[in-house]
Amino acid sequence: MQKSGNCSPEIRLEPANPHAQSNLGVALARQGKLEQAIAHFRLAIAVSPDLAAAHNNLGDCLRAQGKVEDAIAAYRDALRADPGSAPAAKSLENARKLLQPPGAARSRETAIAVRRRCVRSARDRRCSKPRKRPILAHPETPRILRAWIELE
Predict the structure, then answer these.
(1) Domain boundaries, the chain
(2) How many contiguous H segments (helices) and E segments (strands) does the chain have?
């Protein structure tokens, strides 16, 4: 812990205040002091495990250090604490992309497009023309289906 002269008044008065610890972690992270920021986020989480912002900020620092798997775990903890947290969901998605092989994003996009076509096809079955080539005859169907399954 830093000397009391360098800490904010909230930390000096109440070291167990998770919001003050988290805010100090944010300030340290902005200064590039990631190790110190991580320590303060972990203190905030130890005091208040349901503080989603601290988990999310911890994940951001870990990802900046290249510890993507640890960052993903932190983002998941943030989503457990607050399932509606849009920043944590977006950060988790971005961190997962870092672990995917280069062609995986294209497979995912193709799977989404195929899924949309299937939904449209099912909806418009009564009035649509027969397809020239069925969706399942596409040469990349196995790869697309694997990516489709990962979406769920």
Answers:
(1) 4-99, 104-151
(2) 8, 0
